[in-house]
Design goal:
176 residues; mainly alpha; 7 helices; 59% helix; globular; binds zinc ion
Length: 176
């Protein structure tokens, strides 16, 4: 594949961002409710890649990834679009107002974090899919006019993950 930011990168950034956000809000990430919020952030950050059968989400939700592949839905299109973000947001709003409190918002936060980080890659993300299309094909496809800051699977990606997590550790300490 080589076209997905590694699951490990998404897990690391989601854990750090979730823990940092909780700390900034004066909550303990190590408490049971805090740990649940972080776990939901991680789950949300893995969901967009359900559009590849080899990803963590693709393997956990095999019927979904299988169906998307059968329908010819390409990676970083439908599940990485503004439309998907709004749908997940609507589902989270509904779950939140039906008694789950703030928990669904952590899931949405992880989902949006994934789209944000993917959109910084050289390939980018089709926020406006289906109005927007990738040009080229396979590993050579690209988004017109897009310039990312890292290449998927490169040292640049690892560096970005480390920097992001570093900021997440430093920020709550500085803001205290
Ligand atoms: Zn992705």
């Amino acid at each position: 594949m080589g076209s997905a930011m590694t699951g490990a990168g998404h897990v690391c950034t989601a854990i750090c961002a979730g823990a940092a956000a909780l700390t900034l809000m004066g909550q303990d990430p190590m408490s049971p409710p805090g740990a649940l919020a972080v776990a939901l952030t991680v789950a949300g950050s893995l969901l967009p890649d359900v559009d590849t059968e080899t990803s963590v989400a693709g393997r956990c939700l095999r019927p979904v990834s299988f169906t998307l592949a059968a329908l010819g839905v390409a990676h970083r299109t439908l599940t990485h679009s503004l439309m998907a973000a709004l749908s997940v947001g609507a589902a989270c709003w509904w779950l939140s107002s039906s008694g789950l409190g703030a928990y669904p918002w952590w899931f949405l936060g992880g989902f949006l974090l994934h789209l944000f980080l993917d959109s910084l890659s050289s390939q980018g993300v089709l926020w406006l899919w289906p109005a927007q299309r990738f040009l080229g094909s396979g590993p050579y496809r690209y988004k017109r006019g897009h310039h990312g800051v890292y290449r998927v699977g490169s040292a640049g990606e690892a560096l970005m993950v480390v920097l992001f997590c570093g900021v997440c550790v430093i920020l709550p300490a500085v803001c205290r």
